[in-house]
Amino acid sequence: MTDDHLPGPGFRTLILAAGRGRRLGGGDAQMPKVLLEFGGETLLARHLRLLAAVGADRVSIVVGYRGAAIAAELERIGWRDRVDLIENLEWRQGSVVSLDRGASILDGEAPVVLMDGDVIYDHRLLQRLLGGRHPGTLLLDREIEPGDEPVKICVAGGQRIVDFAKRPAVASEWHGESVGFFCFAPALARRLGEAVRAVVQAGDTMTEYEEPIRALIRADTDGTLFGFEDVTGLPWTEIDFMEDVAKANALLPSLAA
Q1: Is residue 171 part of a domain?
Q2: What single-letter DSSP state applies at residue 13?
Q3: Cα-based torsion angle of the residue sequence 18, 177, 198, 118 in order, rounded to the nearest 10 degrees
Q4: Is residue 224 one of the residues assigned to a domain?
Q5: What CATH number corresponds to the domain at position 99?
Q6: Which domain holds residue 124?
Q7: Which of 185, 68, 199, 58 is nearest to 130 (CA)?
Q8: Residues 6 or more apart whose Cβ sits within 8 Å of residue 40
Q9: Partners of 229 in the beta sheet?
C-alpha cells in the first residue's frame, strides 16, 4: 500500500470461514477448518491473537457451516464482543458469495485486510502484508507446488502482476503462490465490493472470490494499483487436505509466533 493508506488502528479485517472443508473428510461431523487445533490453539484463536498484535480491533468473520461452533469458540477465548459474525446461508456455493455477504466491510473509509480462514502462518506475514507499498497488496511465495491447486500470482515486466488464477490465461515471466491474504486501500476496497456484487447479481454464484480480484488486477494495466510482498522462506500453509494438517503440525516449531 502507499504511505497514504498504511493501515493504522482503524483498519478493518474480514475473514472468510464459511465452508465445510469437505476435502478433509469427516462428513457432517467435520468441524469448520478455523476450529482445527495446532499446538493447543485453534486457527481462529491464532488469527485473532496475531491480528490483535498488529493493531486489529474489531474483526468480521463470514460463517456458514456450523457457524454456532465458531461463535462458541469466540465465547471461550473471550473475543465474542470484538467480532462481528456475518452469516452466509449459501455456503455450499462459491466463495464469492461469502465475500458478497461481507461486502459492507469493503464499503467504508478504512483499509481492509481480507484473509482466508484456513491458513496457519508466521506472524511476519501479517507485518509484510500491512507494510505493502501498493493500494492492493498480495502475499507471494516463490516455493509453489506444481499443478492446478495453488492460486498463482503471475508476474511480468519486473514486478507487475498480470494474472491471478489457478489456471492463468496471460503470459508471464514467472509466478508464485498466493497465501490468500490481501490488503486493500479504501478506494480499491470499494471497487472490489462493486465487482463482487456484480458477479453475484449476474448469477455467477459458484465462482470463487479470487475472480473479482483477478478482474481488477487484469484491468490494472500499468501496475499502479496492485503489487506483492515476497514471503518466500517464511513458514505458512493453507489447510485443504489431511496432508496439510500434518504439514501444519510440522511447521509449528518454526513459527515465530
Answers
A1: no
A2: E
A3: 10
A4: no
A5: 3.90.550.10
A6: 3-137+180-202+235-254
A7: 185
A8: none
A9: 139
